[in-house]
Structures are given as C-alpha cells and as structure tokens.
Amino acid sequence: MLAGLGLCALIAVGLPYGEFVIKGTRLGLSSSTPAAFFLLFCLLVLVQPALGLLRRNWGFTRGELLLVTAMMMLATAIPSRGFTGPVVAAISSVLYYATPENNWAESLVPHIPTWMIVQDEVAIKQFYEGLPRGESIPWAAWAEPLLWWLLFIAALYLVLTCGMVIMRRQWMDHERLLYPLVQVPLGMIDDEGRTARFKPFLRNPVMWAGFAVPAVLNSINALSHYYEFVTRVDIDLPLSLGPDAPTLRIRLNYLMMGLAYFINTGISFSLWFLYLLAKMQEYACSVLGIFSSEKIDAFSHAGPTTGMLSHQSMGAMAVLVVLGLWTARGHLREVWRQAKTGGVAAGELLSYRASLLGMAAGLVFMGGWLWQTGLPLWAVVLFLFAAFFIFFALTRVIVEAGLSSAVQGLSAAGFAVSGVGSSSLGATGMMALGFSLAWAGDLLVFMMAPIANSIRMLHGLKIGRRRVLAMLAAALAVGLLGSIYTTLNLGYQYGALNLHRQYFSGLFAFEPFRFAARFIETPTGPYWPGWGWNGVGAAVMTLLMWARHHLLWWPLHPIGYVAAGTWILNNVWFSIFLAWMIKSVVLKYMGPGGYRSTRWFFLGVILGQVVSGGLWLVADGFSGVTGNVIRMY
User: Fold this and answer.
1) Which side of the chain, N or C, has fewer Cβ within a 10 Å radius?
2) Which stretches within 192-328 are classed as H helix?
3) How far apart (Å, rounded) are the C-alpha atoms in residues 256 and 258?
C-alpha cells in the first residue's frame, strides 16, 4: 500500500514537472499510461531483486504488483493532459487573457458562476507571471473553484468505475475482448509458477532484442538533442498521393507497433485498411467539391474535408454503443436481477446494486453541477448522453483494438452545438459547454480506459475487495491533489507563461472561451448536413456489424471504422500495418507456437519505447536540458 501510494505521489509530482519544466518526454500523454509501465519496470529491475536479497519473502507478490500497477495507471491519467492541466488553465485564464479586443470581460465573464473560476485577479497574475520574492502562494483564492471541480471529477470517476464494473463480465467473459494493453504488465509480472528474484521476462533474450530496437534508436535521437554532430534517425516521412490529396504519414511508432502485435490480425487489418479508405473518401470529396463549412471547437476536427469523417465517426460510435448494449442485454438483465435481490456479484469489485446506485448518484450530481453552470436541463441530458457515448466507445476501441490512445471525431460539446445549434442553448449554456472542453474535449488521455484495464487486470486476485477499492480511490486522490499542488507551485515559481505553452498560453487556456465567444457573437441553428453524415456513419457501421456477425468470410472488423476517421490514426496507421504484416507472416509459416515465441520480442519493443523515454526524462531532469521529447503516441 505504501509503495503504491508513494509511486502515485511520484507520478503526481513528476509528470507535471517533466512536462511543464523539463518539457521532455510526456509519459502521461497517452491512455496507455506509459509512466505506470516505466515505474513497474524500475520496480521489477531494481527494487524487487534488492528486497529478495534482504529477505526472500520480502519481495512483492504477483497480486501486490498488479495492484500497485493499477494504482499507477489511474494516477497517470490525471496530471497534465488528463485533468489537472486543462482545468487549472480553464479556471484561471479567462480573467487573465480578457482584453478590450476580445471583449471576454463583457461577453463571457457575466455568464460564468463565481464559484467556477478564480476571482482574485492578483493571484491569477502572480500565477501566470511568477510570485514576487518573499510572498506566499495564495491558496485561498483557488480553494473554492478547485473544491467544486474536484467534487465534479469525483462524481465522473465514480460513474466510470461503476460502468466498467457492470460491463466487465460481458466484455471479458462473454465477448472475450483482448485487452491488449493489459498483456504488458501481465507479461512482466508472470513468474511461471516459480519464485525468483528476477522475473522470467528479464531473463528472456528475445525480449531484450526487441527492447534494444527502440532503446537504441531513441537514445540516438535523444543524444542529437545534446550534441549537434549526432544525426537523428526518425522514420517520419510524408507521402503525397497527388495534387490536393491528403498526405499520409509514414511514421514508426514502436509503442503502437508492439501493442498491435497482440491484437487479432482481422482488427489490425481493418484499422489501417479503413483508415486508407477514409483518406480516399477525403480526397474524393475534395475533387468533387464536397466541403464542410462547419466550425466547432478545436477538439472536434471539423475541417473542410475532415468534418464529414468526424460526423461519420460519431454516428459509428452511437451504433457501436447501442448495439453493444443490445448484445449485452442478457447480461444487463442479470445485473438488474442481482441488483434488485441484493445478490453479490462474484469476483467484481462492487456489487451490482452498489454499482447501479453509484452510477445513478454520480450522474445526478454531474447533471446538477452542469445545470448550475448554466446549461439547460434538456441540454444537460443531451450532453451527458453524448459524453458517455464517446467515453464508452473509445474505451471499447482501446480494450478491443489495442490503440495506445483513441480520440473522438466530435467532442460532446461540439456534437451538442452542431446538433441543436447555439441559439437554443443561449449565452450561459454556451459558456457552460466551453468549460466542458476542460474534461470532455481533448481525450488523448481519459480515465475510463485505465479503469477498464485495471479492473480486467485485478480480476481474480485473492485480495480483499474493500482493500482494492480503497487503494484505487486513494490513488485517484493522490493523483488529483498531488498534481494540483505541483502545478500551482510550478506556476507561482516559474510563471505559468514559461511552462508548457499548450496549457497556459495556448490551446487549453484559450479554446473554451474562443469556442463560447464565437457562438455567442454569431448564434447558429442545427447543422443539418452534420446530421446527414452522422446517419451515413451509423448506416455503414450497422452494415459492418451485420456482416461481421453473419458472413464468416467477411474480413473487416467494424471497430476499425470507428477509429478510421479520427486524427490519431494519422500517426500510428503505418505501425499497425507493420505489426499486421509481421504477425500474418508468423502465423502463416510458424503457427501459434511462432506467435507465442515472437510475442516476447514485441513486449520488449513496447518496454524499450517506454523505458527509454522515462530514462531520458530523468537524465534531462539532472542535466537541465529541455525540449528533448521521445513520442509516446
């Protein structure tokens, strides 16, 4: 317990410092939670053998290691991009950046509840520009808004946890989803039934061969940041298909290539193939002059040619969720029966009754909170439906398709504005939607995926259920409080303007208010072409799912269509293609035994990417070098 909480505290402090001050490798910038795997590697390589030398039974057991890993995964999804960075920027930047030119003080601030943002302009100025010598941090100015935001995020995490407890048996036992990300810690911790100081994966030469590939190449790139005579060896090439055609990026992402090797070849084939079809559609629309005139928020990616793809992705997500729940109807009936009778759900972290009550309580609190921010009640219902549809669909993509990160086509706020128009929401409603972008806008990191993977990883362990829940809750609390404390300290020490530009002088500081101001100044009605493209996405997804269930020869998996129109595949499609090609050849000529042997190589590839990023971040922290980034997505 102490080790888990200590490592969560290290994550809560280290990730903001690494991202805001060192500006190095961003170990929290992925739903695959690379910081957790880096620290688990260090635990197994350094701490576990040392404990075994002191006394044989002092080493961590398999269950303890998995619980510590789950705690770290949850803690990693909070600092910087996961919650703290966007929220601290949102509650402080509107007053700091309000000018006569943007008119935010007159057009936006009157529509913001006073409890929602920091009101002390001196405290805000000192946060962005640095604290004068001899003065102390004005914690009281931040107390009220942070308290309300923490209560809201606690309700959100409660809903997400209860939802994943309810769906665990359906996804894991009935549908047998792969949870590729979980294979990493399970492979690292597996002891093959033998007690030894060094886990078998550390004694596997095939694993170390895979580890060496990204470790060596990333180290060369990192050294090029230190020494000009060292040449980078990045594989990142633009591939143009013709005049005015979308550009394909040939980029090698070792983390994604390793994860894609653990998924079904049908899924990996569908991911890269449907992505290329989406690019062909984008090119065809460009040639035919079919463009989208819609402008929403920066997280909805509704460009002239990509807007149609974003709406199609949203329609596909809706079908994925609805048909997924329909497929699970038998399981959900059993959940309801046990909740009514008070039966204990064997092996689950929570009883089904507690899960349903917790979900209901969390949704009621979130709805009331959003209503108090100025969102009409009907819009609260619409927005929460859209937000949880997106969370649920993206989590399904991650646990089934193995993407290290999955993103949406439209944000929940963007879907609401596009669907019903800003004029029906009013100025106060638009301002409330603007603030929602801090927690439901950019979903490169979101909590539902680590929760789902943690529940899967902890299933079947002989550890008291209450103890597990208490430690997971403690990990969330440490991650939230520790990262907020660290972020505010760094802001007042260095001046937030000197920290990572994306948070305090760029995207997260401006987008909630630019979004709201644009639609307040120019009210809009529903964007009907968007509904049409939503329908196209829903229809195609329905056909893909029907074909998947009724045609044995059908090669395309519908999960690929959900991700095909989103920007994340621009960065990882080629890595998925390579993993699919290699695995297909291995299965064809070496069979299942060949796959079991080669999987250690790709586990090493994943660890080599994560560990090299972590080690160079530590080295940069000691050397004072900034801007040395090894990409994690």
Assistant:
1) N
2) 205-226, 254-260, 265-288, 307-327
3) 5
Query: Cβ atoms within 10 A of the Cβ of 193, count?
Result: 5
Q: Please state, in angstroms and rounded to a whole number, the distance separating the CA atoms of residues 482 and 341.
A: 40
Per the structure block, which two tokens stand in for 554?
């059908």
DSSP lists the bridge partners of residue 587 as: none
Which residue from 485, 487, 518 is spatially nearest to 504, judged by alpha carbons?
487
Dist CA 196 CA 153 (whole Å): 41
State whether the Cα torsion 294-295-299-305 is positive or negative.
positive
**Pick from 437, 474, 490: which is nearest to 87 by CA?**
437
In tens, the pLDDT along 295-347 reads 899 998 877 778 899 999 999 999 999 999 999 999 999 999 999 887 767 78
Taking the model in full, what pTM does it have? Answer: 0.95
Indicate the helix (H) or strand (E) that contains 311.
Answer: helix 307-327
Tokens of 502: 């994306």
- Per the listing, tokens 């002390």 go with 120
The structure tokens listed for 577 are: 């293609």
Q: Which two tokens stand for residue 570?
A: 């621009």
Residues in the chain: 633
∠ CA 513-514-515, nearest 5°, is 90
Q: b or e along 334-361 (b: 16 or more beta carbons within 10 Å of the residue's beta carbon)?
A: bbeebbeeeeebeebbbbbbbbbebbee
Residue (of 482, 504, 506) closest to 125 by Cα position: 504
